[in-house]
């Protein structure tokens, strides 16, 4: 379960959001919508531990997450829009690398787990290919497998349907639903309202549900 309490972010004098409260239960899918420039990516970067918040708490499975932008560990898995796959590693290596480096998992075991994840995401034939050989949708599923390999408490996506055709979007919906049945908690930042409606149990509208302006 992820609990967000009284979270606030300020850039200079400008309050991007404040008093943000939200709870996502285990296995739930939350979509975050709202107009461009409202603060969705900023929130995602804070959740990922890449950007400091100015106030508030993030509590994941009863443990407080660092909000100063110096977080250790991979409690939150994020699939960014450009996927950031390592170009010189194969698909399997991309997925198996972080558990070996960060969690000190043995290579054989990390690769076995990577194979299992890739199989579940329909990427058996791509395991030994390189990112440049993949379609956008395939790259995205590799990025999902790579995030899942670290066994995060929550998986977050930034605009997962942008640049995908209708068929690939359907596939993403299937993957999200499949992970949901496995109990994975997911948070999705999206502009795509039909997609949000198709996958989400709960929708958070940054344009409506968040306070801004004034000061902290
Ligand atoms: N490092 C920064 N310094 C100052 N202002 C920033 C910084 N990063 C973002 N902003 C501002 O904060 C606001 C929120 O930006 P953010 O990228 O989070 O919006 P968004 O809702 O994700 O938009 P989009 O959907 O277009 O990606 C914007 O007005 C942006 O200009």
UniProtKB/TrEMBL annotation:
Signal peptide: none
Gene3D superfamilies given in the database record: P-loop containing nucleotide triphosphate hydrolases
GO molecular function: ATP binding; ATP hydrolysis activity
Name of this chain's protein: Amino acid ABC transporter ATP-binding protein, PAAT family (TC 3.A.1.3.-)
Record-linked InterPro entries: AAA+_ATPase, ABC_SmlMolc_Importer, ABC_transporter-like_ATP-bd, ABC_transporter-like_CS, P-loop_NTPase
Keywords, sorted A to Z: ATP-binding, Nucleotide-binding, Transport
One Pfam family hit: ABC_tran
Residue ranges of domain ABC transporter in the record: 2-216
PROSITE patterns noted in UniProt: ABC_TRANSPORTER_1, ABC_TRANSPORTER_2
